[in-house]
Amino acid sequence: MSAPRKVVLAYSGGLDTSIILKWLQTEYGCEVVTFTADLGQGEELEPARKKAEMLGVAPEDIHVEDLREEFVRDFVFPMFRANAVYEGLYLLGTSIARPLISKRLVEIAAATGADAVAHGATGKGNDQVRFELAAYALDPDIRVIAPWREWDLTSRTKLIDFAEAHQIPIAKDKRGEAPFSVDANLLHTSSEGKVLEDPAEDAPDYVYQRTTNPEDAPDAPEFVEIGFERGDAVSINGDRLSPAALLTKLNELGGRHGIGRLDLVEGRFVGMKSRGIYETPGGTILLEAHRGIEQITLDRGAAHLKDQLMPQYAELIYNGFWFSPEREMLQAAIDHSQRHVTGTARLRLYKGAARTVGRWSGHSLYSEEHVTFEDDAGAYDQADAQGFIKLNALRLRLLAMRERRLKG
Question: What is the pTM of this model?
Answer without folding.
Answer: 0.94
